[in-house]
Amino acid sequence: MKHINEDIDERLERLASATRGVRPRTDFGARVMQAIEHEREAGWLQDVLRSARRVIPVAALAAAVTVFWAIRSESSFDEAIAASLDDAVELEW
Amino acid sequence: MTNLEEAVEDFLAGDRSAFQKLVDATSTRLVRLSARMLGNMTDAEDAVQEAYVKAYRSLLGGQFDRRSRVETWLYRIVVNTSIDAKRARGRRIPQADVLVAPSWDGGASADARLALAELADWLDDLPEEQSTAIILKAVEGLGAAEIAEILQCSEGAVEQQLVRARTTLKQRRNES
Fold first, then answer.
1. Is B68 on the interface with A (CB under 8 A)?
2. Which residue of A has its CA nearest to B120?
3. pLDDT given at position B9
4. Which residues, other chains included, contact B54 with Cβ-Cβ below 8 Å and sequence gap of 6+?
5. Are A16 and A28 in contact (CB under 8 A)?
């Protein structure tokens, strides 16, 4: 037990010196860049989802307007057909 | 302009691969710092990896204000991430990493790993700010001004933390 007779500075110096050669494993840089790549992909997906979230209300409104317009057009079309059929019947008579 | 500042400039100009230069230039020092705080290499590598992801996000989000040096800014992120990791794991020091695992190819010798564990165990009872300050000063060899910048406090507060840490360690030594 070296530290029993050491003062605080000596012990800190010894531990600093003993750990000076510590370094990450050789593939650590590649591992970090892989994590960054995941982050980049996740970031891209989040950007798409964030943009999509902004577009959803507009798309829903556009869909509602389209359905309303389609229903109205269809009833106008039916009325026009009915009117033209009436005319045709009258002509036939 | 230092290499690190150039790498940051390149990154901000759109060269995303410049981040690799930052990692290559700083990973050894940062993993060593984190290992000294956490007491083992496995937790240190995890914490530093997480710190780099945070740094990447910060750079992309324009949160690096360039008031600090790049290295000091990275130190700050690693210190905070290591403190969070320490809190998350509680006071447990994973013994598996302290004992020599022959298959493990990290750059820490058995002596170094024992020294990391001894350091963490010795400083474990100190409040976080005191143990961090004493590691940055006496083990990493940083000056009070840089430590203050990393810990985002005044130099006086750093000196106070160092005095308190030494007093506690001295008291504990006298008691044992």
1. no
2. A15
3. 92
4. B77, B81
5. no
Q: Please give the Cα distance from A5 to B3 (Å, whole number).
A: 44
Asked if pLDDT for residue B100 goes beyond 50, the answer is no
Is A2 an 8 Å CB contact of chain B? no
Residue B40 above 90 pLDDT? Answer: yes
Q: How many CB atoms lie within 10 A of CB A85?
A: 10
- Burial label for A65, CB within 10 Å (0-12, 13-18, 19+), is exposed
Cβ neighbors of B75 (< 8 A, separation 6 or more) are: B30, B33, B146, B150
Six token digits for residue B99:
């004992």
Whether residue B15 is predicted with pLDDT greater than 60 in this model: the reply is yes
Q: Cα separation of B131 and B39, whole Å?
A: 12
Q: Which residues have a Cβ under 8 Å from the Cβ of B26 and sit 6 or more positions away? A: B4, B71, B74
Please give the Cα distance from B168 to B122 (Å, whole number): 11
Sign of CA dihedral B110, B111, B112, B117: positive
Does the structure show a pLDDT above 70 at B91?
Answer: no
Instruction: Name the residue in chain B with its Cα closest to that of A19.
Output: B112
Rounded to whole angstroms, the Cα distance separating B62 from B58 reads: 6
Q: Are B116 and A19 inside 8 Å of each other by CB? A: yes
